[in-house]
Specification:
This protein has 166 residues and is α+β, with helices and mostly antiparallel strands. Helices cover 34% and strands 42% of the residues. The protein has two domains: 102 residues, OB fold (Dihydrolipoamide Acetyltransferase, E2P) (Beta Barrel); 63 residues. The protein is globular. Keywords: Membrane, Transmembrane, Transmembrane helix.
Length: 166
């Protein structure tokens, strides 16, 4: 196992770790959208997260993606992400054994952040906020926080991708 290329983006330290996959455990977290009609059983209404837990050397790794990771026990893998407690959280990975690399779509997160920021800006210019109504101010705060989180997450993923390429 090798730990290399530390990068500090704002307050989160990102690292790239390389090693051989062992103790691979794939899980599927699936839940039903509460707004889904009860008579409809199509898969579009289910939210799925593919969780892979494994070891790279002596380091515990956890990856949550919207698509399953393409890894197997014994693969040579490089992951980039951050440590959360004792577990390393993966943002992007590169499997040299299977010639595969993947990450979440940071562009869509960035576009989502811009959308929420635009809605917040529209609320900021509304008469209800300037008159001092509480509910529009709460919506303004909520949309602003979501925009900041989505933008930050997009930039983290982009930085993690850069760590894999260098």
């Amino acid at each position: 196992m090798t730990v290399s290329k530390p990068s500090s983006f704002l307050s989160t330290s990102l690292y790239a770790i390389s090693g051989t996959v062992s103790n691979l455990n794939n899980e599927l977290l699936e839940y039903v959208n509460p707004e889904k009609p009860t008579h409809d059983h199509s898969s579009i209404y289910y939210k799925r997260f593919f969780i892979s837990k494994f070891n790279l050397g002596d380091k515990a790794i956890e990856a949550k993606f919207s698509t399953p990771m393409k890894i197997a026990d014994g693969d040579l893998l490089t992951v980039s992400g951050y440590a959360k407690g004792e577990i390393f959280q993966v943002l992007a990975y590169q499997n040299t054994s299977q010639q595969v690399s993947s990450h979440e779509n940071w562009v869509m997160l960035g576009l989502g952040a811009l959308f929420f920021a635009a809605v917040a800006l529209g609320l900021l210019n509304s008469e209800l906020v300037t008159e001092g109504a509480l509910v529009p101010k709460l919506f303004l705060l909520g949309f602003t926080l979501v925009a900041i989180y989505m933008g930050y997450r997009a930039l983290l993923i982009r930085e993690a991708i850069k760590l894999l390429s260098t």
